[in-house]
Amino acid sequence: MSRNYDNLKKTIDEIKNKVDIVDFVNSYLSLSKRGKNYVALCPFHAEDTPSFYIFPETQTFHCFGCGAHGDVITFLEKYEQISFLDALKKIATYAGIELDITQKEEPVEVTFNEEVSKLYNYNLLNLSSKHRVWQYLKKREITRELAEEFELGFATGSEIQKVIEENLFDKDIAKNAGLLINGDKEFFYNRLIIPIRNNVGELVGFAGRQIEEETNSPKYLNTPENKFFKKSKILYRYYKNKKFIKENDFVILVEGYFDVISMYKLGFKNVVGILGSAFTKDHALELLKATNKVVTMYDMDESGQKATLSTIDALFAKDFQIAVSKYPAKDPDELTKKHDNKYIAEILKSSYKFHEFIVDYYAEKYDLGNEFALEKYLKEMSRWYKKFENVGRISYLQSFIENISKKTGKGTEYIQKVLERTSALIPESSASNESNSQTKDTLYVEKDIRYDIAKSYLYLWIKYPHYREILKNYFSEEDFSSQLLKEFFTLTSQSSDIGFLLENSSKELSELIVEVWKIEYFFNPERILSSLKESIRRTKINQQIEELKKKLHETKDLSEKTNITSQIIQLYSKLKIVN
């Protein structure tokens, strides 16, 4: 629920009725009566002749010298150079009125953005169809209905101050949001505005698109990132299109805002955009709540292909099913203007598997007829071969080898031998693109996993899906005392889908699943499994020791005490062997 402005305004009116502006200002300035009004030297600029007037009838002030104008609250705000809310609190105390301006649920920053967005949107929808912004939208085939659906707006450069004044916001909110810069200058001017909502629908930022091509101005301006606006966590329109992603059981990933709008317009509503940033593990985690099937539809230039490869790298280790679409246009927005939805549906249907894309992408980088270039190409393929092995995506290896064989003209047996031998020589850090400093941390990460029973179990279950049956055969719920694991067993008996687990687990379990899921390292699963077995044995022995100690304390029979003590010593011996 947003701030209750109606109640707040009533309180402000009550304050103004109770506090006489003449009496209040007279405690700060020396006033002289002039007719029905009062005058003083203006406190806001230097002057010799009084031009600062107070009008008792309207309970306002105005300076005919510098133009300062307002009511009793504005006066205090300007005089003491404090925020509007601080001035309001101070005058409320002066008037003996209790002021409740506490915020409910929705952060004030988000409420502020909502009010700004409404004004931007109002501007756009009330402009003539001949206005240059509508001419621009017409070229991009954006109708009024689409503009309303996507909450598009237009910035004239005078919206922020109006929102601050009409809704009683602190100016610092606008500055922190990046909507006011260099004093009181508005960040967006003469731009089409695209509101950006986070993955739960809160309006956290804006993008401004230039509508007139100017060489000295960037096409897009984004409000700066802050505690609410994190591009690495937000997928454009995910909050709205999540239901369509679930219905279709796959998501279409594109790069730009207009790619999303254009695909949506043609009926492909299971589409989201990555806001021009790299695809991250946080993005992947959000998608996993809706589907584990992804079709990338990035721009067809070199940067788009690199982004595709980077996205594959972020997704394939998380057990996603990934396909890559190729199409005859520079981006999806252009494609939708050249072809209908049936054509695009075929493009999506014929998307090829991610490992095929990897083979083709690197093949275009090297002259495979040159032995030296071929060697470099196969080394790249060996790095991916090792990645597939590390994360247990074994089912792709044969097809991967066959595609490389076709691309190079070499036999599959030769390719397999080269990949196996070369991948064995590649350090783990190189296979997973880790830096040297990150590699040093792997020892600590692995220890953290191995010495935590819940983490060990979840790590194997999440990172190595083929180990789930092994875990099931080795362990039962009774082997664990952890309440989080007991909850995990209950949930996995209903579904093994990560999205289901994240949305139905307790906050503590959800956070643990996310923590494990985000671990980028792939450690030897047999070593983790061995540590898990030892940890459970150690826990059981310690439990037995504690039970015997309790019995020892309770019994008075000397013979029984001797027997119990002997059992405890034996268990301690076992514990040393386990350790």
UniProtKB/TrEMBL annotation:
Gene3D superfamilies listed in its UniProt record: 3.40.1360.10, DNA primase, catalytic core, N-terminal domain, Zinc finger, CHC2-type domain
This enzyme's EC code(s): 2.7.7.101
Catalysis performed (reactions): ssDNA + n NTP = ssDNA/pppN(pN)n-1 hybrid + (n-1) diphosphate
Species of the source: Petrotoga mexicana DSM 14811
NCBIfam families, A to Z: dnaG (TIGR01391)
Cofactor: Zn(2+)
Cofactor binding note: Binds 1 zinc ion per monomer.
4Fe-4S listed as a keyword: no
Gene: dnaG
Subunit architecture: Monomer. Interacts with DnaB.
GO term, biological process aspect, one: DNA replication, synthesis of primer
Function per UniProt: RNA polymerase that catalyzes the synthesis of short RNA molecules used as primers for DNA polymerase during DNA replication.
Domain notes: Contains an N-terminal zinc-binding domain, a central core domain that contains the primase activity, and a C-terminal DnaB-binding domain.
GO CC annotation, single: DNA-directed RNA polymerase complex
Family: Belongs to the DnaG primase family.
Residue spans, zinc finger CHC2-type: 42-66
Domain of life: Bacteria
Domain Toprim: 249-332
Phylogenetic classification of the source organism: Bacteria, Thermotogati, Thermotogota, Thermotogae, Petrotogales
Protein name: DNA primase
UniProt keyword annotations, A-Z: Coiled coil, DNA replication, DNA-binding, DNA-directed RNA polymerase, Magnesium, Metal-binding, Nucleotidyltransferase, Primosome, Transcription, Transferase, Zinc, Zinc-finger
GO molecular-function terms, A-Z: DNA binding; DNA-directed RNA polymerase activity; zinc ion binding
InterPro entries named in the record: DNA_primase_core_N_sf, DNA_primase_DnaG, DNA_primase_Znf_CHC2, DnaG_bac, DNAG_N, DnaG_primase, TOPRIM_DnaG_bac, TOPRIM_dom
Coiled coil residues, start to end: 538-565
